[in-house]
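note to self — DONT lose this again. spent like an hour looking for the file last time. sequence + predicted structure for the chain T wanted, 594 res
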Amino acid sequence: MMQMNRLFIALLGSMLFLMSCDRTEDISLSNNEDFTLECAKSAWSQDSRAVVDDDGIGHFEEGDRIDVWTKVGEETSSVWLQYEGGRWTPSLKRVNNGQGTWALSALFPVLSQPVGDATRRILNLPLNQSIVENKQEADILFAQTTVGAEETSAKLLFKHALHQITIHLKGTVPEDVKVQIRSCTNGEISVVDGSVYLPKKNYYWITPLQTADHTYSAIILPQDASDYQRGAGLLRLTYGEKEISYSLDAEVQSFKPGMQTTLNLTLKSAETGDEVVDTEFANQTHWVYGITSPVCPTLDEIQTYHVWESNIPDGVWFRYLYNGLLDNVNYLTWKEGCGWYDCNKTFEYKGGDGNMCWAATASNLLHWWLNHNSKYVQAYEARYPGNPCPKVYHQMTESKQDHSEIFNFFKNSFPNLGSWETGGVNWFINGDGRNLNANYNKDFKGFFCEVFAKDNAVATETHNMSKENFNRWIKEAFRTHKAIGFSVFGFANAGSGMHAMTIWGAEFDADGNVAYLYFCDNNQSEQDPNYGAVKRFKVTYKLGETAIDKTRETFLSPLDKLDGTPSKAVSTICSLTLVDLRQDIWQKAFPNIK
């Protein structure tokens, strides 16, 4: 067994629709009233309740029972059907269940009924799901349909009613590691609509099923995820005599029915101070999704220009020469179609936008979001005409400094005061004005409020800037196609306050940690090459001495001098904002768009 002195975890939390084998199996339920019920059953993996043949067809087994609920007008009834000899018995009959329109629903398997409520069934998930049969027992399926008064057949499509968590361990995994998942395991489920209720929140540790090398899976109840973002957290890993816990990232807000949360955890050990490499990111450069710009070349290859030169070519990396000495900042000039945006304040802030760095950052993130959601945006504005959102962006020039319609909209809607880029993004899309200062546009509901409710967060943030959490969020952005905003303290000088900017890329060191950031600064646009550029700065980490400091151990500074001396201009990175395309929400509203 490998001895581990320290264990580090990097999370990728993502909500995915369960990829399942949805195949229809014709099971006739005929009776003297000639009513036929056709059943279909989905399987999300071979360890689920559905028995999967070699050809991938999921089917019911002999002796399986379903709990069928019918409603005709105000009349309701419940019956158990059992699969025997290729058919379900007893047969459903119109004469017993009414002649009007049926509301028909069913649960698989049959569960106990609580006292006093005929519409609910009791859920008690097994804690030891490391046995295949026990995990199968936890996998509850629900189906629902409506049958017209004149119809003589119906189809019930059984889908997963609970939530599945899958954990992939990467990196240095101890041979004796044990994984446990914390969750509420007792509740009730409605046989009418499949809703899950948690009358009491009692938490237990579930042992998941190991489905492959370092891959584990378990069924939990649908529930809010906030209780797993603190305290005992969501996961517990034990090895040897050591134990660590993992708190769920705030990006995952709930465990929804019929969906799956996949966690990719990279384990790193340290022996005599040397960390094991995170091979997924080590010595690599990553751009935010959709960006086509080149990575920064080496010092020997990068172009140089004198500080007095203007009109630098578009789309090139370079360094300035000051009296023959290289500046300690690398620049990349903007180029049409590059995929990143640099919304800047006006020259010397004469446009009354000196304190609106948050709005400029939100505007960058929104331009990126609108671009990659353009098909959905067009469909939305065709369905809900009358209030199209601002979209136009072009490179800033000396004569045209109002180069972003989105930034102009923010400046027309808010006073010249500080605020938060996370709130700005959400407000623009769904009208959620929390965490924003007073604005002039009180009745604004968001440009996409018909699809995005106020609790449909597009932008989320973290203020925990420990080395571990900072790297986890940055890597999550690159893995899951998110854009990145961030705030720093003391960026302009040691006495300056908070400043928001936009991260478009990052370089990782040999251990897989962020070593350099590619970002846009919206201040002093008159000094920016071509009035739009990415800067390359160095990231350093320093372990704080107090509890507060330990969450603020990530710092930003210009490049080292040519003699290797670090720059004295060091600022503290205070927060990160991730912007999700939320195409899960878009797809529900516009399912025909691919």
